[in-house]
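$ ./design --mode recover --in tokens.txt
reading tokens...
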């Protein structure tokens, strides 16, 4: 008997097919008035919009009212993705124009409180959504907070950020509820299906429409650039160009390749590769700076305890942003609250130099390296804290070298000709210029065209986007995408960013202590477009029913030629990655057997949602696998 196995698609599974009896009574949807783009960022969130009544997209960024201090509300163009869980004594000091008696705050006041009360401040909720080793729907944040602090889940934290954005929209546009608008919400390109479904769950709970669109952040950055340049992009890019989108934000780094081709005399853009989910970014830089500053405190005879160390990490975030700004000061003080008997109620501080910080972070995170260099790995300890799985090697340039090598052909790495930077890290031109220089050196020159003028030199497209726009580019780009999808315009083709596989346990004689071999069957090919579906050819497989079964999923960002029905008997970890598996007991129904013979059908909906159907070949039954992580996983509805 062949056992079905799953991975990347954590299942909220198995729904009988058929139309809802209420379908005929549904009220016709209200036509949207606006396209709304939302960047739910690790460090900052942004909402942009454009009126559909206009003849061309005029994108605006919504000012977001938020607490900037207890009792003080002001509007900012970004909402810091921080959540402060208040004490009972603070009730009434965190009220908003649309909410009274709140015991929490999101935004600027929470960001400030992160340095003063780190054990009550949720940070990096977005990164936790992609961490499959924890239950992301359980109250685990703030991570390692003491028992006296009431915790919340990563999904709940994300919901509260989005609820704040929904409330801000409602205050600005009371006659145009967000649930009736065309909404595009961005996610990292490297988010797996589980993380995307969790994001979708939080968004719908927060008040977004059921059928909003998920868009990859690097693609949104490209759409922002297209929106800024207009038709002029065709004079900038040419056939054969390979655009590298390098997105380094607060918590993650994402690499995407977009090729420029020609069809029927017109230039077209195709997303051809997406990198792995890398937990390295601005947060790591803050921690590196904190480690350095802790040494400066030690030189003054001040040894920091764990609470002060976490507080210092958050203080260093603010110091980094201040020092690396284009008009940043030569030095800035960093202070922590005193904890010793002589320091209680006071603070202790040190001065940190701009030049020293720039060198520390530049050489640590964007070092000079060769194209054949690879990120270092460490042997894992037998016991590890189940915190966020940050990369062992923080060298962004080495991770980029590995990505380009995997996407190359004939043993040669992929060679980008253009680079588009995105993410707050690149607001400092020092970082973007260093990365350009390193990439150029890999292919025979530097970013200024020196050494080998005949070599193709990568050049930045960010001249059309001011550094200040990097805070808003993703939300603006999502709005441009929504406009193009609804009203027509340039679209980036790409489809799914990975190939997807289900694991099939082979039949055969049992051997004590040895599991049966596993085969991986491709059910979704790389680049499968929205609005398309495929019957997966091949022999029937047995869907285990009536008893607990283990379902496993796999995905690949490198096996781009596999088609539905292709079978892999063996593979390396570099070829296929296994993600969230699940266990479920499926309803036996009328079957007297322990399994039901089925075939697979795969589909990518117009909204970019992936569906996999198990279709019985001997009855009219079929099950839809929705690849989510809800509590009803495994139940037949």
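writing sequence...
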């Amino acid at each position: 008997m062949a056992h079905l196995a799953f991975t990347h698609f954590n299942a909220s599974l198995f729904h009988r097919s058929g139309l809802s009896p209420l379908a005929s009574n549904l009220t016709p949807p209200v036509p949207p008035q606006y396209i709304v783009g939302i960047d739910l960022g690790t460090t900052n969130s942004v909402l942009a919009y454009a009126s559909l009544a206009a003849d061309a997209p005029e994108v605006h960024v919504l000012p977001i009212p938020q607490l900037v201090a207890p009792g003080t509300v002001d509007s900012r163009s970004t909402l810091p993705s921080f959540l402060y869980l208040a004490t009972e004594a603070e009730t009434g000091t965190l009220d908003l124009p649309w909410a009274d008696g709140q015991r929490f705050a999101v935004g600027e006041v929470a960001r400030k409180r992160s340095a003063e009360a780190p054990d009550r401040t949720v940070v990096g909720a977005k990164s936790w959504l992609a961490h499959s080793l924890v239950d992301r729907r359980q109250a685990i944040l703030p991570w390692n907070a003491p028992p006296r602090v009431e915790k919340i889940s990563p999904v709940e934290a994300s919901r509260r950020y989005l609820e704040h954005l929904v409330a801000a929209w409602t205050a600005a546009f009371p006659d145009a509820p967000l649930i009736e608008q065309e909404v595009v919400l961005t996610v990292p390109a490297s988010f797996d299906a589980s993380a995307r479904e969790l994001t979708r769950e939080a968004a719908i709970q927060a008040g977004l429409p059921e059928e909003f669109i998920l868009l990859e952040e690097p693609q949104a950055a490209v759409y922002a650039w297209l929106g800024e340049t207009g038709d002029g992009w065709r004079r900038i890019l040419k056939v054969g160009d390979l655009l590298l989108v390098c997105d380094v934000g607060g918590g993650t780094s994402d690499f995407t390749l977009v090729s420029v081709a020609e069809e029927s005399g017109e230039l077209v853009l195709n997303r051809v590769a997406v990198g792995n989910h890398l937990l390295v970014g601005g947060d790591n830089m803050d921690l590196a700076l904190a480690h350095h500053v802790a040494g400066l405190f030690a030189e003054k005879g001040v040894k920091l305890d764990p609470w002060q160390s976490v507080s210092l990490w958050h203080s260093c975030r603010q110091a980094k942003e201040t020092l690396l700004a284009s008009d940043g000061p030569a030095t800035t003080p960093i202070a922590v609250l005193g904890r010793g008997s002589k320091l209680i109620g006071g603070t202790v501080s040190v001065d940190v130099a701009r030049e020293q910080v720039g060198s520390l972070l530049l050489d640590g995170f964007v070092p000079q390296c060769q194209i054949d260099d690879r990120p270092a790995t460490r042997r894992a300890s037998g016991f590890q804290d189940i915190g966020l799985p940050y990369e062992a090697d923080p060298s962004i340039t080495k991770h980029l070298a590995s990505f380009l090598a995997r996407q190359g052909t004939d043993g040669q790495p992929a060679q980008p000709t253009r680079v588009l930077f995105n993410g707050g890290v690149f607001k400092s031109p020092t970082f973007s210029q260093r990365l350009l220089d390193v990439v150029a050196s890999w292919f025979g020159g530097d970013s200024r065209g020196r050494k080998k003028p005949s070599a193709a030199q990568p050049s930045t497209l960010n001249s059309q986007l001011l550094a200040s726009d990097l805070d808003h580019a993703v939300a603006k780009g999502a709005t441009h995408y929504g406009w193009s999808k609804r009203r027509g315009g340039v679209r980036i083709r790409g489809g799914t960013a990975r190939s997807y596989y289900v694991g099939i346990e082979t039949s055969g004689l049992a051997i004590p202590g040895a599991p049966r071999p596993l085969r991986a069957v491709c059910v979704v090919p790389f680049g499968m477009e929205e609005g398309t579906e495929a019957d997966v050819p091949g022999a029937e497989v047995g869907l285990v029913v009536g008893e607990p079964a283990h379902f496993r999923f796999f995905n690949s960002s490198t096996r781009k030629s596999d088609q539905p029905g292709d079978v892999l008997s063996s593979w390396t970890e570099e070829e296929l990655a296994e993600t969230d598996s699940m266990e479920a007991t499926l309803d036996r129904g009328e079957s007297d057997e322990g399994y039901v013979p089925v075939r697979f059908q795969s589909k990518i909906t117009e909204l970019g949602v992936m569906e996999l159907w198990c279709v019985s070949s001997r009855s009219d039954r079929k099950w839809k696998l929705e690849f989510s992580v809800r509590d009803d996983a495994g139940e037949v509805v």
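exit 0
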